[in-house]
Design brief:
The complex is a heterodimer of chains A (315) and B (246). In chain A, 28% of the residues lie in helices and 26% in strands. With 315 residues, chain A is an alpha/beta fold. In chain A, helix 5 runs parallel beside helix 8. Classes of the chains: A alpha/beta (315), B alpha/beta (246). The complex binds flavin-adenine dinucleotide (FAD).
Chain lengths: 315, 246
Amino acid sequence: MSVIVFADTRGEKVAKSALETLTYGRKLASKDGTSLTLVTFGDASAERLAALDTNKVVVARNIGDADSQQLTRLVADVATKEGAKWIVFSHDDTGKAVAPRVGAKLNAGEVAGAITLPNDQGLIKRNVFSGKAQAWVELKTPVKVISLLPNSIPVEAVSGTATVEEYSGDLGAAKVTVKEVRKAGEGIPLPEAEIVVSAGRGMKGPENWGMVEQLAKELHAATACSRPVADMDWRPHHEHVGQTGIAIRPNLYIAIGISGAIQHLAGVNGSKVIAVINTDPEAPFFKAADYGIVGDAFEVLPKLIEAAKKLNAER
Amino acid sequence: MKILVLISHVPDTTARIAFTNDNTAYDASGIQFIVNPYDEWYALVRGLELKEAQGGTVTTITVGGAETDPTIRKALAIGADDAVRIDTAPKDGHDVAAQVAAYAKDKGFDLILAGKETIDHNGSQVGPMLAEMLDLPFISLAGKLDVADNKATAERDVRGDVEVLECALPLVVSCAKGMAEQRIPNMRGIMAARTKPLQVVPAAATEALSTTVKFELPPPKQAVKMIPAEEAGKLIELLHSEAKVI
Ligand SMILES: Cc1cc2nc3c(=O)[nH]c(=O)nc-3n(C[C@H](O)[C@H](O)[C@H](O)COP(=O)(O)OP(=O)(O)OC[C@H]3O[C@@H](n4cnc5c(N)ncnc54)[C@H](O)[C@@H]3O)c2cc1C
């Protein structure tokens, strides 16, 4: 019996969301008095993997994350061999594709986008209705799959001493293959950003985004926008947040010239702190905000940029 | 090309969110239901575009009771050829996938399109579970999809980059922003939808793997702290020293 965590360990350093899943897995393992096994893939060095807070690592070297069937076979095989009771993923791009597949393959119930550990009754909380409510879910199967919403629990131990095993089973050929990767420009990818500076139709036109970008740069933030702004091609589509764009949960969301329509809020209501700048004191966004300024973005933004520069100079 | 599009029946994006029966069920009284936006704007419309360009059929499938028929008719009005409704109240995401798999397994669909998630359950589960049950490859969160020579090419945003993926048909794709533009059904479409085939299929025997025991609403937000526009710079100071987020 053990707890399995699946995480992506590629890249310059292990992602925060991967460390969160390890913390979650460690807590489940301690509760059950069992060990923790990390299942991963790719080229992270054995030294780096051995230094993670897990008892064991199983790494499949020659696959990527494009083919969810290969990753499903990998996780299901290790989980079956170890008699895993819990299988934990991050609810990120890869986890969203693989966790449900593993659940279907092993006939294991899945909590998608969990935000808590199981409580005393074994119930796990998740967001529903696009963050407007939460649900407590019970899994009825002996094997349970969790995908953990990023930024839901703090990372605890980040290091340990694990044994590292290279996976040698047959995962089959990849049916989905990567033809090309177009690297994004500079800047912080929106889904991973801790701070997001977002602007809406109140900015009047794409030529005025210089100030928005400058504030984002000073705050080490990613930029985002409302739907009409993306639809009018003022900004790229991947910046569109909300009900029909992407949902984000940064520590800080600064909304400039965005009215705060319910469909926009659905994508940002998981943000820890929301600051709103709007000329209209009746803008619905103020009801969802922690901090607010009633004012013209064209006058307020230069003041914010100046203050951010001053703060950066002081720290 | 034979295309199947999964259509979910969800409360309107502005619908009141409240619960009944001791917070165990969504209170649907007086609520307007719509086609899940990801299913409609992205999956269905892209399916129709591919069919219009290359020939074939677009069938929709919905798991639900007769109350979902108006939502299904809306999908037909937008342009689907025919619809299937599996006549049961879905128990969880796994149940929906199992019901669709039981229907689709011997029908020879080349392409199965799902929205990236529903706006009520937000699970992102049905597409990948269905792919697993049908032993098919799956492309998640695609923002672009093309088909040529029996091969699909899709693009998706991952970690800020754009990945171009390829896969031979048949496959399952979950559809996100960018794939197509919303289509408003016209009068002719609405009239035609009334007589298009909507086949009601009895449910397969399935078991729920999970139950939602209870819903709750988030605690009310604390009052917003207002900062005068003349002192806007103070916002940055407060975000640093009080909220500790920068
Ligand atoms: C099914 C459905 C799904 C949708 N999905 C999304 C979604 O995913 N994301 C999304 O964002 N929207 C979505 N929408 C659209 C949503 O309803 C709103 O129309 C949209 O969010 C409005 O964008 P906005 O706030 O930028 O523009 P507006 O509503 O035009 O608001 C502009 C705001 O800027 C303020 N303003 C004007 N000038 C200034 C100035 N100089 N300085 C400061 N403030 C100023 C105004 O007071 C106003 O509040 C959806 C709608 C539907 C029906």
